[in-house]
Amino acid sequence: MAEQVEHWFNRRYQRARRDVYLIRTETGWQVKGRQGGGDGPEAVHYFDDEADARVMLRRMLAAVPPELSDWAQMTSQRKRRP
Hints:
Structural class: alpha+beta
CATH class: Mainly Beta
CATH architecture: Single Sheet
Helix content: 10-25%
Strand content: 35-45%
Mean pLDDT: 92
Distance between the termini: 28 Å
Strand order of the largest sheet: 4-3-2-1-5
Number of helices: 1
Largest sheet: 5 strands, antiparallel
Number of strands: 5
CATH topology: q64v53_bacfr protein fold
């Protein structure tokens, strides 16, 4: 089972949208980048350890042109018990 650890969003929509995910799997780590929203093209990179995955995460964030790189880290919407 995979767990999404981080999700970064560049605060743009439609074709200018970029999403970058850090994902922990049973066998290692993945960094997934997506362009243009949910149906856009994706690139996935696989790693054995978190440190290498985080290097790729930073590289993918830095690769977006400055005019499109107003990054925000998304938080998960978990229900809390009262």
